[in-house]
Specification:
The complex is a heterodimer of chains A (186) and B (316). Chain A has helices at residues 2-57, 64-79, 83-104, 108-111, 114-149, 153-159, 173-176. Chain A has seven helices and no strands. The termini of chain A are far apart. Chain A is rod-shaped. By secondary structure, chain A is mostly helical. Chain B is mainly α. Helices cover 67% and strands 6% of the residues of chain B. Chain B has a four-stranded mixed beta sheet with strand order 1-2-4-3, sandwiched between helices. Classes of the chains: A mainly alpha (186), B mainly alpha (316). The interface between A and B is medium-sized, with 17 and 16 residues.
Chain lengths: 186, 316
């Protein structure tokens, strides 16, 4: 009788270990998939940029330095290795693009150009996609991390050596500040 | 209730509706067998009704979304048009936020702003939008509407709504047909009353009575159920839509703009009303609060929805 109880408890523990291990693996893979999604969207942005530069080049010949800056930032972002460096380069690219679109405002015939409008929409959509992909990744990764840190699944996570996923934050402290609006523009 | 519980509840309720649907058909088949057929020993009509219920239920599950889209004259987007391309982009963005495949997108030529989602699961989902909505809202607001519809897809509201639409549609058709048949039979019997008429008896009368009540009440009941079912989940779709975009104020703004158009969305008919972001009938009942309005409106009062969304924004 006692032996059966012990066997029952042991079976329950083994089943519990299997179930928690599997749910941790599932979360880990979801997080990895979320991470891949970010890369897909970043690539979309990298592919759009040469098109954009080509379209505005003719009209914006006086802004050559900004254009080369955008291209350089793109190339650096593509060749960046590792999460931290990638994040820095992608943020630099975002900054360069913002600067470019601010300059486009100075060229009325560019602003009304259909192709520029289309590219602008594609790029702002891509920015949103990148943002949403990061948000989705962060949500899944947070779930994964919580599962690793809360009792009792933390025992399993420790036993099989799961590592917490890194979350995306704002890379640069200046981005957290409210942008200052310069009213002396005109 | 969070969206995971809601999803489970929706899948369960979809099955319950199919069961009700089949039982209802069997009940009517039994009535016909008792009254007109060869009796319960040879339930020809019951078997027929059962087969009709199963086949039409399955067809509705598989193709109901296409039927709904067809009935609203929805057509594919023209991606060369900048506004429509933007809407396509927005739907893709929101599906990334939800971590789901991108639904098919459709456009309805109607000046009144409205949108709806349909489909049996996220892999077979469609989101349709009226021309009026694309014209009236800015990018953020369109994104909020897309996120609201995406939430309906994500928690399987669309499957349940689809099954309700199939149920409501078939029962309305069936009770129409049964009422006509009953009327026809009665006048027919009067002319040849010398022969039969002995099939009665107290028990038979009761069955006929219940059957008649079902035939009369079914359309009303199913309509009420469709309304009830959709009201509560609008709040949840608002909330989880705002969770996707992290921008509840944009949805509040969108609802404000949509509610300022009081006209009906003509291309969306009664059967699909409960799928929309805002009641396409354009009547004022959804603006009122109180018992009666709660009973008959397909959507919660829009002011209440806006108020809740604004509270979400300020609470942060």
């Amino acid at each position: 009788m006692v032996m059966w109880i012990i066997i029952g408890i042991a079976a329950a523990v083994v089943l519990w270990i299997i179930a928690s291990y599997n749910s941790l693996v599932s979360l880990k893979n979801q997080a990895l998939n979320g991470w891949k999604q970010i890369d897909v969207q970043l690539k979309r942005r990298h592919d759009l940029i040469p098109n954009l530069v080509e379209t505005v080049k003719g009209v914006m010949k006086f802004e050559q330095s900004t254009l080369t800056q955008v291209i350089e930032a793109r190339n650096k972002a593509i060749s960046a290795q590792g999460i931290a460096q990638k994040a820095v380069q992608e943020n630099a690219l975002t900054g360069a693009l913002r600067q470019l679109f601010a300059l486009v405002e100075n060229y009325p015939n560019l602003k009304s150009n259909e192709n520029v409008g289309k590219l602008q929409e594609e790029l702002s959509s891509t920015e949103n996609r990148i943002g949403f992909a990061r948000q989705f990744y962060n949500d899944i990764a947070t779930k994964f991390n919580i599962a690793q840190q809360t009792f009792p699944s933390n025992i399993i996570a420790g036993m099989f050596g799961f590592k917490p996923s890194e979350l995306f934050g704002i890379a640069d402290a200046s981005e957290r500040e409210v942008p200052k609006v310069d009213l002396n523009l005109k | 209730m969070n969206i995971y519980e809601q999803k489970k509840a929706n899948i369960r309720s979809s099955w319950a509706i199919i069961a009700i649907f089949v039982l209802f058909f069997i009940f009517i088949g039994l009535g016909i067998d008792r009254y007109y057929g060869a009796g319960f020993n040879m339930p020809v009509y019951t078997v027929m009704a059962f087969l009709v219920a199963v086949i039409s239920g399955y067809a509705g599950y598989r193709n109901g979304d296409r039927l709904v889209l067809y009935s609203t004259h929805a057509r594919q987007l023209d991606l060369n048009d900048p506004r429509q391309k933007q809407w396509q982009n927005i739907v893709e963005e929101v599906s990334i936020a939800a971590g789901l495949p991108t639904p098919k997108t459709y456009l309805i030529d109607d000046p009144d702003p409205n949108a709806f989602a349909t489909g049996r699961d996220p892999e077979h989902a469609s989101i349709a939008v009226t021309q009026g909505l694309l014209g009236a809202l800015n990018r953020d607001e369109l994104q909020a509407v897309a996120a609201h519809e995406m939430s309906h897809v994500r928690n399987f509201d669309t499957r349940l709504m689809l099954m309700v639409a199939v149920l409501v549609g078939s029962i309305a058709l069936l009770s129409d047909w049964a009422a006509r048949m009953l009327f026809y039979r009665r006048t027919g019997r009067r002319s040849s009353s010398s022969g039969g008429g002995s099939s009665g008896g107290g028990a038979a009368l009761i069955i006929i009575g219940i059957w008649l009540i079902a035939v009369i009440l079914a359309p009303i009941l199913s309509q009420l159920m469709a309304m009830f079912v959709s009201r509560r989940r609008e709040y949840l779709a608002d909330a989880s839509g705002a969770e996707l975009t992290r921008n509840p104020l944009a949805l509040a703004g969108a609802l404000e703009k949509i509610s300022s158009y009081t006209g009906p969305t003509r291309s969306i008919n009664q059967g699909t009303a409960h799928l929309c972001i805002e009641d396409p009938k354009g009547n004022s009942i959804n603006l009122k609060e109180g018992r009666l309005a709660d009973l008959f409106a397909t959507h919660p009062p829009i002011n209440k929805r806006i108020e809740i969304l604004k509270q979400m924004a300020y609470a942060r």
